[in-house]
Predict the structure of PCI domain-containing protein.
Amino acid sequence: MADVDMKPADEKKADESKPAPVPAPPPSPVAEIKANVTLIERAVSTMEPRFTHRVLRTLAGLRKQLNDTVLYDAIDGIYPKESLVRASLLSWLPSSVSQTMDVDAPSKSATSDPVPEVEIYLRLILIHHILTTDATKALSLAQETIQKMQALNRRSMDPIAAKVWFAVERAYELGGELADARGMFLAAQRIAALRHDAESEASLINRLVRSYLHYNLYDQADKLVSKTTFPESAGNAQFTRYHYFIGRIKAVQLDYTQAHTHLQQAIRRASAPKMAPGFYQAVHKLFVIVELLMGDIPERRLFRHPVLEKPMVAYFEIVKAVRSGSLSIFQTTLSKFGKQFETDRTYALIVRLRQNVIKTGIRRLSLAYSRISLRDICIKLHLDSEEDAEYIVGKAIRDGVIDAKIVHEKGWMECATQKVGYGPEVSEQFQRRIAYCMELHNQSVKAMRYPLNAHRKELAAAEGAREREKELAKEIQEGDIDEDDLGGGPEF
């Protein structure tokens, strides 16, 4: 074994005193755009879309760093001076930026135009940047980008096209013309389905469903979902939005179980809360309302999440009102946060919780009183009249919410005595469970199967091994086999 050179104590102290290496600063937005352009060209030349997906994953963070100067520097460094594409892209930036940059020192420009996918990518980030200042101008750029993208008709452009459709929808929405884009989305969705373009098809289905939900056209959205098949190979982000939209549709259609399932899938598939806080909050707001409509109470720790704590204050008050069964607190909370609920598009669902609040209040009264008049019920639950109280109590009895009966002649409700945890009914139910478990055990034992005569095969194999050992020992004694044949060798 080679010796290890030990460092002197002085050198060890010198190494420990060295400062930790400073991490490299993040690249500038211009450098990041140019690196993304290189990856796009590599994806087109090698026919590997994973490089394009790597570029698109940086889009969310890059959008926050964009400005006119960054975009001008990036386009000027990617395209040569005489390029027509360069002039077309720079025309969407303010003229003041062009004049300022022309006065500065000349930058190094490329010698030839890159692949067409680069132009669509730059148009995509241009749309996102212009959307923050001028929605009308962004809409014009989006329409021009769609025409150019459809004219090129390149399959290597499919991942970028899926992101472009999202930017186009956003431009139409901010411009107040989202309904006008529906025909274009339907035509593009048919083309994407025929071309098996999973990313674009998934994005367009989400765009169409969101367009219907924006105008409260839930029947049309449900028909679209039932008549189309969402691509299984679509990205996780598209699946997340799709589950959220289906959850909204099912909640409005009173199918709370399916809505709860799809919203759970959306929460599990969603990105980190800090990466997409708006979507994370929207899903949880609807999820809390659906849980309340199902008769469950959400956990308190949900409202302590740092991303959800402030936006979910109004929903926490609704949860407390439903849990307490106080109709007055519920109405006060509803009037106080009504504008926020309308903005979140959950007001219609929250109004349905009134019946849950009343049922909870009646259940609490049935546990507290063995007999209570309908007049007192009307006062405690803040109902309009005794007739309403009688109707609501009757419905609660029929639905099995409470075990009671209404004495109409005397005008009160008599509650049944509370059942204890002992008695013949409990013992019979316990006996049925024991019988079921024993029957399941017996059936499992009977279902076990073992191969026939398996032990005989093992005995025969062991007997054959012993016979071979005896023959080998006999040959060694007779000298027919030496140590070299057995794998041994001379020792040095």
Observations:
- The chain is about 65% helix and 0% strand.
- The radius of gyration is 36 Å.
